[in-house]
Amino acid sequence: MILVTGATGAVGREVAGLLAAAGPLRILARRPERLTVRGDGIEVVEGAYGDRPALDRALRGVTSVFLVTNSPTEPDDERVAGAAAAAGVRHLVKLSMMAVEEPGADDFITRRQRRNEEAIRESGVPWTFVRPRTFMSNTLSWAPGIRSAGVVRALYGDAPVACVDPRDVAAVAVAVLTGAGHEGRAYAVSGPEAITAREQTAQLSRVLGRPLRFEELGPDAARTALLAKYPRPVAEAFLESAERQLAGAKAAVVPTVQEVTGHPARSYRTWAADHADAFAAE
């Protein structure tokens, strides 16, 4: 039995879908009504990480866990790792981020993820970290502007990033969860090329068959937009991350998807074509 958390998110949803096709699966979900993966072999436990009884129910009889956490303040990794150790879980696979292995990354979110990884190491549960680069699906945030005005507004249009399709991250995670010999390893996961926001806009334009215009946001405008959605430490972390991307720190391509799954990483053009409906004109 494998337990999947974060099954309503970009990667967790794909992990659950892949695992559901292969055997019994359990999902811990704070809001089960938001799940898109369902079936006779799927058991859903409703609960949050802070609900220890629900966490214990979800972990009962489980051999492996796929863990996704996103709270900037709650000790969710510690909670799950401690409960997993008590339940005798034999493998905990955590979705982390590539920046944790990069010395130049010292923003709030990266420091938090480093602490989360350390908590899992200290739990005694055998672990694997899957550390992706920026998700291609983050550009879904451009959809309202594209649909309404044919405009993409983003910070630093010429900053390259080897962004990755969440489906490829999920495929790596599933290979780790269902294979052998992955314990104690960390896998950096990127897409097949470094691409800029301006280039992504051009590719979306070709996929959609209509002109799109890129407008670069300045740092102050980007900060204002981020603060409207996130607490200040998180917003500032995104801005620091963008500065690193502008300096080329996120451009490196790694072959992990091919090596672990046996298939090449998908390009941004492929991701855009598969999600074109999200950007369709109003």
UniProtKB/TrEMBL annotation:
This is NmrA-like domain-containing protein. InterPro entries: Ergot_Alk_Oxidoreductase (IPR051604), NAD(P)-bd_dom_sf (IPR036291), NmrA-like (IPR008030). Gene3D superfamilies: NAD(P)-binding Rossmann-like Domain, UDP-galactose 4-epimerase, domain 1. Residues 2-243 form the NmrA-like domain. The lineage of its organism: Bacteria, Bacillati, Actinomycetota, Actinomycetes, Kitasatosporales.
